[in-house]
Amino acid sequence: MSSSNTSAVPSPSPEKKRRYLSAEKKFQIYLEAQVGDKPVGELLRREGLFSTDLVRIRQQVKEGALQRLGAKPGRQQGHVSTEVHEALKRELQDKERALADQAVELAILRKKTNGGSWDR
Fold it and tell me: pLDDT digit string (tens) for 37-67?
């Protein structure tokens, strides 16, 4: 008896990994698509992208440009990450607690040195 090792069930195809494009790479792709000297399809094939990816990149560029152009002149407001914000909040709370403790100690010392009088 000979048994065949071929199976009718196809092997699972490896999952496609999501590609991450940096902001610079997206902007480069956007600029190349805008020049128009080569077909956009050629650019998309070369970069392994779909037309929907290019639409998304164009939308992101538009939003970024509008946000930047709409900013008021002068010093730019800095953005702080959530982690940094939470760390700063904790640090502030610790310092406020320490300041409150110092105020209590100072009040006790004044009471001891002045015999209960706050004037001096």
Answer: 889 999 999 999 999 999 999 999 999 999 8
Neighbours of 44 (CB within 10 A): 16
* CA–CA distance, 73 with 92 (Å, rounded to integer): 31
Report yes or no: 18 and 48 within 8 Å, Cβ to Cβ: no
Residues 65 and 89 in one domain: no
Residues 97 and 89 sit within 8 Å (Cβ to Cβ): no
How many structural domains does the chain have?
Answer: 2
Phi, psi of 100 (to 5 degrees): -65, -40
Domain that holds residue 25: 21-69
Q: What DSSP designation does 70 have?
A: T
Distance CA 78, CA 71 (A): 12
12: Cα within 13 Å, side-chain hemisphere: 3
